[in-house]
């Protein structure tokens, strides 16, 4: 009898171990490992302070290394033969990943080999020779304990490979994928808006049925650089202080670095003010600008974004992958594909438009047809993006990846169409510019269809993801907090901040910040200088200083300034105003910000988007 009980206990233990291993793999566990790469030839390269851009230093001048897709790279030179051995940390049938870049010095090719070294014997997995090569290198490998992977180069030239990794191949239903879909310039009131009797966003509407709708979400600024930097740092604009000609300082946090402990981290983005030049690429294994891949900057860019994401997912089959997918699809210049414009206004005389900006930001448009044309094209861009997004969701479902994935749909800011006597964005903090969509589809579609009324912010997104996957992160200096407790009915009382101060899109517009506390929104406007007012002499800004106060419940369009009649409310919020003013004052007083020179390609992108 005792023997039977003993065998039963042994059997139970064996089953428990098997279940534990399988659950460990499906939950993430040691599904991938980064390989220790040997040191390269850093002395032969010049790394730009702050941005990390690289140039190869030669006797005939510096040669920029492009594309540079990661901050974690091994740079090398080749003269004859050069090899790098990577000690294997896992065994079995695995996937191997790195990004490879090389360029030969002359007309002769540089030869590359990917080898497995086993007991002194070499087995070649890949071999090719080219003068110039860039590749997201993915290779199936069958490894044993004691093996080494070898990257071998022959010829004369230079290059780099990014932090190499080995990973297990698991079924789609066991993979952990996290997507942040960052659609630039998306106003919250466009989500589900009815146009010609139909929803403007039918595919996003369907997705929201599987998601949690954080209906009162606010961006940390009303323009791209300041807001997306808040997303990744978890810091308010006046705390991260990244400005137009600067970059994220090394002492500032980058929450992707924490996420990268458990996930391979990729980004496909529209460049411009999310270019790696500003410091966004910290923590990413692969950070790539689609504009530099010769993809259209506007019309159809959403389609190109999701198509390329799908190709990478299919090819690599990573077990744990975080992807930041960003597009300027609906950002001006508005140039929607005709099939979508016809569904908004088949008689529109316009095909490509930019709204007023610069000194004309606050000038009214007297041509009613043109005024409507702006909105028609903007909405057609949204309709196009919705279609491409729907195709991506369909792809994820067909591949068996959708249900387990965590998908965040968000925007960095909205767009004004003269509701407060201004055009575009980056000049004000009214809701058409800072109230943004935030939908989070949790793995397993948990809490599908739930609507959260609490005020939340873009800075809360990364802390929410880190909390969900229980990834340790230093959030001591973070202004964001996890939104997950809200799903359990817990309170999330906090003041909401949106601003532009150290980081301003248009330097002629002085700093301003908004504080949302309960139903009230206070906007503090710094005074315009005489020079700034002269810049806008064609049409002066509607507000040139002072305090505005709005009751968002009774006056959601922010038309009735209550600052004079509700002085007690202003007084109650004044300690917060004073605190933020001190932070902004200190930021300017201790301004040690270094300027960095943008390359011609980045300047051209920003000109296309209307920023320069």
Structure description:
Helices cover 25% and strands 29% of the residues. By secondary structure, it is of the alpha+beta class. It folds into 2 domains: 36-168, Jelly Rolls (Sandwich); 172-472 and 493-608, 3-Layer(aba) Sandwich (Alkaline Phosphatase, subunit A). The strands form 6 sheets. Strands 12, 15, 16, 17, 18, 19, 22, 23 and 24 form a 9-stranded mixed beta sheet that branches. A hairpin with a 2-residue loop joins strand 7 and strand 8 (121-130). The longest helix is centred in the middle third of the chain and has 31 residues, at 368-398. Mean pLDDT is 90; it is low at 1-29.
Quick structural overview:
By secondary structure, this protein is of the alpha+beta class. It has two domains: 36-168, Sandwich (Jelly Rolls); 172-472 and 493-608, Alkaline Phosphatase, subunit A. Helix 2 packs across helix 8 (368-398), helix 6 runs parallel beside helix 8 (368-398) and helix 7 crosses helix 8.
Distance between the termini: 84 Å
CATH homologous superfamily assignment of the largest domain? Alkaline Phosphatase, subunit A
Report the portion of residues in β strands.
25-35%
Beta-strand segment tally: 28
Count of distinct structural domains: 2
Radius of gyration computed on alpha carbons:
26 Å
Count of individual helical segments: 13
């Amino acid at each position: 009898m005792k023997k039977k009980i003993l065998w039963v206990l042994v059997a139970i233990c064996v089953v428990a171990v098997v279940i534990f291993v399988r659950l460990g793999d499906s939950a993430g566990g040691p599904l991938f490992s980064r390989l220790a790469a040997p040191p390269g030839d850093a002395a032969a390269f010049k790394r730009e302070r702050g941005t990390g851009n690289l140039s190869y230093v030669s006797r005939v001048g510096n040669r920029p290394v492009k594309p540079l897709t990661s901050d974690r790279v091994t740079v090398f030179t080749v003269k004859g033969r050069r090899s790098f051995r990577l000690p294997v940390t896992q065994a079995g049938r695995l996937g191997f990943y790195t990004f490879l870049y090389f360029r030969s010095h002359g007309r002769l090719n540089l030869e590359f080999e990917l080898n497995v070294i086993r007991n002194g014997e070499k087995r070649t997995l890949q071999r090719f020779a080219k003068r110039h090569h860039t590749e997201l290198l993915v290779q199936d490998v069958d490894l044993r304990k004691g093996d080494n992977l070898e990257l071998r180069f022959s010829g004369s030239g230079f290059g780099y490979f990014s932090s190499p990794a080995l990973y297990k191949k698991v079924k789609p239903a066991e993979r952990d994928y996290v997507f942040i879909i960052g659609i630039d310039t998306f106003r919250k009131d466009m989500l589900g808006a009815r146009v010609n009797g139909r929803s403007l966003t039918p595919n996003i509407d369907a997705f929201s049925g599987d998601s949690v709708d954080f209906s009162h979400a606010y961006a940390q600024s009303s323009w791209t650089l300041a807001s997306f930097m808040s997303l990744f740092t978890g810091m308010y604009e006046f705390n991260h202080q990244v400005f137009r000609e600067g970059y994220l300082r090394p002492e500032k946090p980058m929450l992707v670095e924490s996420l990268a402990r458990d996930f391979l981290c990729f980004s496909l983005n529209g460049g411009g003010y999310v270019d790696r030049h500003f410091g966004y690429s910290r923590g990413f294994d692969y950070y790539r600008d689609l504009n530099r891949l010769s993809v259209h900057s506007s019309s159809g860019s959403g389609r190109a974004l999701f198509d390329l994401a799908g190709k990478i997912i299919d090819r690599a089959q990573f077990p744990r992958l975080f992807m930041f997918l960003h597009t300027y699809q609906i950002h001006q210049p508005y140039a929607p594909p005709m099939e979508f414009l016809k569904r908004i206004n088949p008689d529109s005389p316009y095909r490509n438009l930019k709204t007023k900006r610069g000194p004309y930001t606050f000038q009214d448009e007297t041509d009613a047809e043109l005024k409507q044309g702006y909105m028609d094209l903007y909405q057609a861009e949204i309709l196009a993006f919705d279609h491409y997004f729907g195709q991506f969701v369909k792809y994820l479902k067909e591949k068996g990846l959708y249900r387990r994935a965590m998908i965040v749909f968000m925007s960095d800011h909205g767009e004004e169409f003269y509701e407060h006597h201004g055009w575009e964005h980056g000049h004000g903090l009214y809701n058409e510019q800072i109230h943004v969509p935030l939908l989070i589809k949790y793995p397993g579609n948990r809490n599908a269809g739930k609507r959260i009324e609490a005020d939340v912010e873009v800075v809360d997104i990364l802390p929410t993801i880190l909390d969900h996957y229980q990834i340790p992160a230093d959030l001591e200096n973070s202004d964001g907090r996890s939104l997950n407790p809200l799903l359990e009915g817990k309170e999330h009382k906090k003041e909401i901040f949106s601003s532009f101060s150290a980081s301003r899109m248009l330097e002629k517009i002085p700093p301003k910040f908004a504080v949302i506390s309960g139903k009230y929104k206070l906007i503090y406007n710094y005074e315009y200088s005489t020079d700034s007012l002269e810049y806008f002499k064609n049409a002066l800004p509607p507000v040139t200083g002072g305090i505005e106060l709005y009751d968002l419940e009774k006056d959601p369009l922010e038309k009735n300034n209550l600052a004079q009649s509700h002085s007690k409310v202003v007084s109650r919020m004044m300690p917060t105003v004073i605190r933020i003013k001190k932070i902004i004052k200190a930021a300017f007083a201790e301004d040690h910000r270094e300027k960095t020179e943008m390359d011609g390609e980045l300047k051209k992108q920003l000109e296309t988007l209307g920023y320069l």
